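Supplementary Text 2. Reproducibility record for the structural model of the 745-residue chain.

All settings were left at their defaults, and a single model was retained for analysis rather than an ensemble. We include the record here because the model underlies the residue-level annotations in Supplementary Table 4.
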Amino acid sequence: MSLSGTLRSAATGEALIGATVAVAGTTNGVETNTNGAYTLSLTPGTYQIQFSYIGFHTLTREVVLTRNTRLNVELQENANQLGEVVVEAGRNTFQERLTTPQMSMETLSSREAKLLPALFGEVDIIKTLQLKPGIQSGGEGSSGMFVRGGSSDQNLVLLDDALVYNPSHLFGFFSVFNPDAVRGVELYKGGFPAQFGGRLSSVLDVKLRDGNRKEYDVTGGIGLIASRLSVEGPIQKDKSSFLISGRRTYVDVFTRLINKTQESDPDWSPIPDYYFYDFNAKASFELGPNDRLFISGYYGRDFFTFGDENFDFNFNWGNRVGSARWVHQFSPRFFVNNTFSASNYKYEIKNQLDIFSFSLTSTITDLTLKSDFEYIASDKHHLRFGGALTDHQFTVGRLEADSQDGSVNVGAGNDYRGQEYGLYASDDWSFSPVFTLSYGLRLSGFLNDGKNFLGLEPRAAASYRFSETLTLKANYTRMFQYVHLISNTGASLPTDIWYPSSPGVKPQRSDQFTLGLTKLYKDKYLFSTEAYYKKMTRQLDLRDGAQIFGNNELEQEFVFGTGESYGQEFYVEKKEGKTTGWIGYTLSWSNRTFPDINNGKTFPTRFDRRHDLSVVAIQEVNKRIHATATFVYGTGNAFSLPVQRFIFQDVPGEDYTVIPVYPERNSFRLAAYHRMDIGLVYKLRPKRGTSDLTFSVYNVYNRRNPYFVFFETIREDETSEITGFVAKQVSLFPVIPSITYNFKF
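Retained model, structure tokens:
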């Protein structure tokens, strides 16, 4: 017999994903799925059923089971939880970490992210994830992710099942995810479930909130550089809801004012204008007892402009994504999610200099249709199967240049199209009370220019529970990647180009093995450690001196090689009590080998980081005040540095030509990176609704961390000969205090 139903928030009516439904006093339990639904297989009898979710009061119900029974439950939010968004997604309760075979996964809620100190007071979900082991940032302030030795393009980023190609604002300093609109985040570093494919290193699955089905709410915040506002409420009470959320920076307001007041000064150099905005919308409908419809969308743009009466430079980029998901429940044990999604990423550079104009554009557009089935065959077997089809359209490096007098007229660029598809099936098999096996198979493929690539991707994970507090886990995963990011810099920039697999560019492949141990100590502390090894083939890079813009023969600039990364991650977490937080440490290596680069010798990647440490502490001072602190330390990034230079002067008195001489690639290291941030959340007592003031100090002890290194030429005066070169370090952020006012009514 089965006990089934849904779990929802009593305050908002939103489904609670990953909540626990268990028989009290036993290990017999299940988690709610992405629709908040659960099915528990039991023999006839009387049971105490416990419903629990982080940030909510646990509820226990007595159930007399004589036949298949449906029980829908609403949980009350914990009033002592601080923060506006207390609806938490994730499977991060300690018992679930011990019982499930899933490993190499991190979960995060908006509440957790909002408590931690942030740069300029802007809460960033991806930056918070960077505080977890195995997830590294690209550098100072960057929201890019490098997961277990993989590059930034090897992360699959999904927003309500729609693909996001560039998840960053401000050249990578902030992510595109507005915390007021996000319900929760799951990041898979390995052990990827079979329904995910298309990237080698990670899956970042971001879910938007459905909106309040019971009453209208307005939520927002006013910070130093940006403000945000969200409105939500019922369309039809208890049946449907909407959520609209927007955010915008306003630094450009001040730069324009400064430029205007100084425009009469002939020596004044205008300050560039920059701003970004993003917009989220979602509507949820309960069409009947067995059908629900979700429609969501995101639109965001960055704008960077600079110029005067003779020169005009404009650079803008951004994402447009949308999805429509229909959920149907055939029975308490059988569900289907049908999703149609569209994704578009585009950047455009326009430059006007006197009579000459120049533009550079790249675009990628995806249309995806997929179906995901879920069937709970018994209390021992949980089956998932489905398929997806994506149509990719690429415009690569569209370059146009002309002049008003017609003396210049240049055009270049290429258009490509490809179809990516996948079929999968998996089974979570509870072989015994202590041994669980999860296994699956994904068949992926890509069709382009008459060439059909196929990839067989086995997935397997196992967990063995030695006791109630100790579990051993292992998994193996193979992944294929059919689209590639082309960059001629070490960092991920908006102008980087996405390129499809083709007869000359084969898909990338990775094989990852992971072994881990999870231990619960005194029911309060969770300790876990994972060792991983990842082998990557058909890695793509650019040959030295490659030209990627306006190049109609772009594949001639590519070189191919292999990659290898391995390491050990350690993690300790405390999630209950007045003092909570975690400590994460990673010891790792990440290398690449290309026959056409570095004379074929293996070299470390730019994001090879031997030591990576993060410490996070959250202290509940009282019911109104939370104090927080974070500390991070990381080995400096690898980079190439010239060891000598040849100086040529063809004609005496003319300019010098300086040719640097480099040793092996990435043979030097920047100085180690470390920083401490502190924060304080003070809950106010308005007459209506809730509000708080969030204070934070970024880089408390003013560490001048390296961003990059350049060389300055040494001369006695402007006309004298070069006497030497000196390396100079550029640092971005000194100590930065900030304050943000958050409200909800």
